[in-house]
Amino acid sequence: MTTTVEKPKAAAEEEEEEKPFLIVGSGTETVAPGLHILRGQGQSFVAETDAGLVVIDAGPGGSVTQGMIDALRQLSDAPVHALCFSHGHIGYNAGVPMWLAHAAARGDAPPRIIAHRHVPRRLARYGETLALQHRMAEIQFNRPPGFFDHRLVTHPPTETFDDVLQIGSGERRIELRWAPSETDDAIALWSPAQRVLYGGAALIDSIPNIGTPFRTMRDTVRWADTLEALAALKPRKAVREFGATLEGEDQVQRVLGHTARALRWLRAEVVRLMNEGLNERDILARIRFPDELFAVDWMKPTYGDPGYIVRDIYRSENGWWDRNPTSLHPAAPEAIGRAVADAITDKRGVIDQARKLAAAKQWQLALHVIDLLATAEGDALEIAEARSLKAEWLRERAREVPSYVSRNLYRVGADMIEQGTQARFGIR
Questions:
Q1: What is the mean pLDDT of the chain?
Q2: pLDDT tens, 310-360?
Q3: Contact 197, 238 (CB under 8 A)
Q4: Can you tell me the distance from the alpha carbon of 231 to that of 50, in angstroms, rounded to the nearest whole number?
Q5: Which residue has the higher pLDDT, 7 or 417?
Q6: pLDDT tens digits, residue range 55-109?
Q7: pTM here?
């Protein structure tokens, strides 16, 4: 059975906000005998082995995970031998208890719950910062307060592995392989007999998700290493976590090799510009992304962005200082905003100049200018007007950028300004 739900094409902001949270549809799709895509939060995967069914990712729980279980049972009545974490991001395996209950109701032994050895460390860190994780996810995915309270949970694995773990034997055996990429605990599934690869978080249908504004640093070169290692297996098919399956060895080699080359080019170019003495903002202004590397379908910035990757590479070799000595020991943000606003005697002139830039649709420059007033506190007429204009122009700027994450950050920032809640969330 194959049932799909197409992602809405956002002709309007309201349509985009109604997108399900990383849900790609429902049902299954067979990619080779005994190997199946299982749709839920991203594309999970099922392998039929002589040990039983191996399922990658249990889903987010609730109706989505129940739909995954129901779809699996239309494929096979075999017991689930193992539930495996594709990576340690919370939410992807919140549905583990439902799979355990399903096994118990059938009288089956509890499935093994397998993850890379780095996953428990990640889950511990997320547990310590759970309120922060909720807040970041609400902003990044443009969801209301409390939306993730019961979604960002994960049942811990019962066993871990380092590099390769084989399950099953003979023609039906599969290998779980460490594939560090979006996270340092990501894995891939490899079927040697059929030369089918499930790439998990390492393989998506857009530019690699490196440098996401709210997340810890990701290793650009290591992701390239992983893609090259997966390509070296010579898969005939490669299933992505998001996006269409890559069909044929030539296409798999083309996409994985090209993406790795683009990442290595980014690393080399950012290092070259750093060695010239450029700071982060200088590099972002100077760098040009060659079309032959970045204008192909699988490098589109629909979620991440090449500028995000530039920032992560820069951070990998630099500290937090932006090279402006004023910022070394800054005053409190509210004090800075107040002092700057007090220093501007012609506030109307600032607003008028910002409006001229906005009238010319130079939204980013208009935002830089209006911030001279919009970051100040208080209800003075010009300050309130500046904040209102900033919210309006953030929404205009959101329409210009292709990255889903960037659009959400602009729009949520606008909402918080209008609600007066931006300071509570550290937004300026």
A1: 92
A2: 999 999 999 999 999 999 999 999 899 999 999 999 999 999 999 999 999
A3: yes
A4: 26
A5: 417
A6: 999 999 999 999 999 999 999 999 999 999 999 998 899 999 999 999 999 999 9
A7: 0.90
User: How far apart are alpha carbons 322 and 304 in whole angstroms?
Assistant: 23
Q: At what angle do helices 130-140 and 119-128 cross, to 10 degrees?
A: 90
- Contacts of the segment 273-281: beta carbons below 8 A, 24+ positions apart: 274/314, 274/317, 274/318, 279/322, 279/323, 280/310, 280/311, 280/314, 280/318, 280/322, 281/322
